[in-house]
Sequence to fold (1040 residues):
Amino acid sequence: MEKYIKNAGLVLFIIGFVVFVLSLSLSDYQLTDKIVGQQGEGEKYEALQKATKPMEGKLYDSNISFIRDLKKAIKSANKSIIDKYTIAEEIASEMALKSMDGDKFVFRKSVIDEVLPANGDVATEQNKSLKDFTGWLEGKEFSSRKELSDQLTSAIQNINNSLSYQKAFDDYSAKNLVFSMTKASSLGVLKGNIKLWFFLSFGLVIIGALAYFFGTYSNVPAGIKNNHIFMDALTSRGWIGVILGTFMIAFYIFLYFYPEYLTNWVLLVDPISYKLNGGPASHWFLYGFMYTFAVSVMGIRMLLKYWGNAYQLIRTASVIFFQFAIAFIIPEILISLNKPGYDFKNIWPLDYDFFYNYNLDQLMESGFLGWFMLFWGIALIIIAVPVITYFYGKRWYCSWVCGCGGLAETLGDPFRQLSDKSLKAWKIERWMIHAVLVFAVINTVAVLYTFFSGSYSLFGIGTETIKASYGFLIASIFAGVVGTGFYPLMGNRVWCRFGCPLAAYLGMVQRFKSRFRITTNGGQCISCGNCSTYCEMGIDVRWYAQRGQNIVRSSCVGCGICSAVCPRGVLKLENGPEEGRLDVANLIGNKEVEKV
Amino acid sequence: MKKIVIIGNGISGITAARHIRKMSNHAITVISAETDHFFSRTALMYIYMGHMKYEHTKPYEDWFWEKNKIDLVRDFVISIDTDRQKLELQNGRGVAYDELIIATGSRPNKFGWPGQDLDGVQGMYSFQDLENMEVYTKNINRAVIVGGGLIGIEMAEMLLSRNIPVTFLVRESSFWNKILPAEESEMVNRLIRSHHVDLRLVTEMKDILADKNGRARAVVTTDGEEIPCQFVGLTAGVSPNIDMVKASKIHVDRGVVVNKYFETSVPNVYSIGDCAQFETALPNRKSIEQVWYTGRMHGEIVAKTICGKKTAYQPGPWFNSAKFFDVEYQVYGDVKNEMLDSEDCLYWEHENGQHSIRIVFNKSTKALLGINLMGVRYRHEVCDRWLQQGATIKEVVGNLKKANFDAEFYKEYEDEILKVYNSKFPEETLKSTGKRGLFAVFNQ
Ligand SMILES: Cc1cc2nc3c(=O)[nH]c(=O)nc-3n(C[C@H](O)[C@H](O)[C@H](O)COP(=O)(O)OP(=O)(O)OC[C@H]3O[C@@H](n4cnc5c(N)ncnc54)[C@H](O)[C@@H]3O)c2cc1C
Ligand code: SF4
Fold:
């Protein structure tokens, strides 16, 4: 019976997954006047309207050509606006000539009115911005015409350069525009039957996966179920693992950098988004939804797999709860109430944009709740992390609460054995994770400096540049593409082990001031290697266990799997007195043998 | 600087090498025929079951040996010339030594059964055995295991992981009952059967029948029953692997005979681990000790002697552990299969038949003698201290929670054994010390 449920589940899962992937190509696209009109009002939108005219009414059967044309249209709208407001650089030299005062050149604003009189809308605006940008030159003397002309040219250039974000669509808003217009222009079977397609994709994947897990794990004795892991092409870096890894990496790249190609998936979760927060889904909503369901469904797998292990059951229930309620549902409800969509369990510096100006502004503008969130967030950093970690180790966060940890412990559990246990990997890990922590701190110092001082440059480096590189390198590439995409290739804690700045902070507390340790049970270790193999953090647990030493490592997230898989009951995660915690090995066996 | 040669890269030989290196500058060479590097024999089953690969069973990374100047030679020693202090290797090379440690381990027993050397008939001891098992268990529809010990039950678990039906022939009337007390032994019988193993107690093998290709096709039991099968696992114990020593001047009996310093009859030659046999066994211990832990302990001690600090083998209280399918077994101290008249015990077993605690003590002095555990983990350090100090049963039961080593949030059974104690000693009952729980941090 179980076998049939399992196989049926697998079939449903595969059908659902194929439908899910194919659904990306299930729409046609047609841009209408109305869609463009909905994007916004003002001059640039008028230009957009004009630029997209040739697209209107045209039926595209693939999003690739649609998006290509749309991007072109936005580019040309931008160009028309920029051309319109661009100030000719030649007038600089003309103004300089007109500023001749004896043998000197003295700049006065009035010369602007002569050369670029405020006739009509465009000229008025050009006139005004030129005055703004040259205010500091007022009354200044120059010995040659060229000197003044150069100053004026550079002012004009600055004005012209700022047009792309002042008047036209900057990169960020252009990206959003492409996404929302593509989504709105979708037509066809998918859009007509969203609920059906949702069921055929997400629905079948979820039902199939659950059936598969029940079929696999129910009605078998409680105990370790690691048979065939290193023979299975999915879990031993075989071809299925490589394909899955490639798929996940591609997913993250599209999600972060090209979400406009994923609009069909976003459409599938639109109805849920409307129910939860009253608005349409964005690609981040899609991600949150997928993330939460991955944690929940794979969390159920974890519960079934470790039935009989109380620690694993409670811990897994905890990560499902924190992802489902605290990270997903509550922020959505807050958004529907027009409050900041705050995730109450996310802690800086993992929550790297907590101190970004837009977040601080938003919190401070949201009344008592906003201020509470601000203080809560700071209290987590300075009180909760050290105090709770002192009593329980970093596991309280990393394998009980955290979202990244939650995904790793559930979706990532089948891949935990792929982490690198070598000493070399440990060396790289220590360098890397602390470097990211330093980077995160610098980034936050820089944005706070800008927030308080208004200046965009700190020690000669642009704070926006720091912010942008952190966002790209760490938050997108490292945490997402590498951290999760590489699960089937490098194990499930790549980010937590090599990248997470919060893990680095928690780890320092755990290593130096905590009551947590994994106790080794005297001389009982048989060096079998199960503990090291299944350590997702790549800790060579056996190295300590076989010499009778407790395991105190900053990276240990306290998942408890080493203790579960040890066939000799050698390992116990526990909180105890600090003294003796870091003692040297005590390998019980011989009497009177000095420890060497 | 002496030249130390160790034959055998198992736990005993490698522990000796590591400790000699820590204490001295001697040149160390380890010769072994089985694998290039030290691996954990105890993990062989997990390779077959797909929990690990061979690489994972190596306790030290490959760079470790060169860094610690431990020379590894992959070869088979064919003879020992103790007069010239020289070994002869299979590839023809000779290796001279100043001090020699023989740590050649065991090999599976074969009792002269007809057909015992057919294809598909084997023990499970070496890496090569594992490779053979991989070959000979492909696409078969039954395996028979002969001999009810720890390796036999591991082999059953291995075969079941590949969905191969298993018949398990055990000579005794209950599994491993020369070691386990009746209740625990019966518990294992039940476990074996609950995994759908065809367990045949009080059954021996008489004969192995061959097919026309010289491969096993059936086993005949002493009752005359013929059990068709394509694989026969021989797990009726192991004995010292010392053929090559027998031909030398070193005195051997069942194993290489050693004194309490692991010295053999020939100067500068020592023997440790599974292959050594004490000329006089220590009280309550066997003269040949065939477990991982003792191999390690022998290695530690012989290293001291070789490095100039002559030290006698003086093991602390006995301990051991194993796993029967999903149920872990631990023993601390001396728990006999049948109690002596001077002994008494407390025994509790969970109604689901998967957990039990047995505490044996001396009837008159009430001193703790041993603890036997099934499906419960206890703390080695605490049990060891109680045993060494001769703690009374009252002290032990009154403080039993300190000994518990189960993972957090697990059910605690110490109060159950407390009840057993209280009904046995109604005149001096003990009170429960409460649960450990999540907030125990605050009251430690
Ligand atoms: C499947 C299995 C599971 C086990 N599980 C446990 C357990 O859970 N707990 C426990 O305590 N014990 C267990 N044991 C027993 C334990 O593994 C042994 O007691 C221990 O490995 C013995 O170590 P050793 O160093 O004495 O010898 P070995 O590990 O046998 O090493 C001897 C080495 O010497 C080599 N050798 C022999 N002769 C020569 C020669 N002439 N030339 C060159 N090389 C030679 C052999 O090839 C071998 O590599 C288990 C054993 C097996 C087989
Ligand atoms: S799993 Fe247990 S017995 Fe095996 S190496 Fe780790 S601690 Fe030792």
Observations:
- Chain A has a mean pLDDT of 94.
- Chain A has three domains: 91-165, 221-514, 515-588.
- Chain A touches chain B through 57 residues (CB under 8 Å).
